[in-house]
Task: structure prediction
Amino acid sequence: MAESIASRINEYDFVVNTDLRLRVFDGALMRNHVNKAGVFARTIVRYSLKRIFDDAKKDAKASIVFEDEFIYKNYEDLRSVEFAAETQIFKAGAESDKMYFIEKGQVAINSEQNKHIATLGVGECFGEGALMGAATRNASAVTETDAELVIIEREMAEQELQKEHPMTWLATLLLLKQVGLMNQFRGKR
Result:
């Protein structure tokens, strides 16, 4: 899915081990719907692609940030919270009902086995598994520095995504699922 939306050559091979039925999606059509999407869905897709392809290490200038259009348009409905350095925001296994946008500071994402997955900074988001209806977190988040985070409740995120074309909704959810799988893989290395 990620390669198709990003117009990248598929780097992975696969082997069919059982009988299955595949649904084929047109990558150009998916890209078209994503590009026409509102700022929230478009940013989640772009951010997911960055995380999947691990572009942060290759090009620091390629940072994907939540555009002001969403955060500041909805700021009165969002809650901003300050955290001291080395504060656990959530741990693996905790309830997953919100995602976070970093306004100030840095946050470490660690696997269930406490292996470092990523360090995120200003303009980035995390906890987006809440958008998939995940009941619990599959990673922990801890502030590395004093931090100020904007909390985006699942309900608000779902309302934003439901405004989109079903193809955009599907692409967003599948990419978030892939990010979750990549995080689990990175956490076990």
Remarks:
- The CA atoms of residues 1 and 175 lie 7 Å apart.
- The two ends are 23 Å apart (CA to CA).
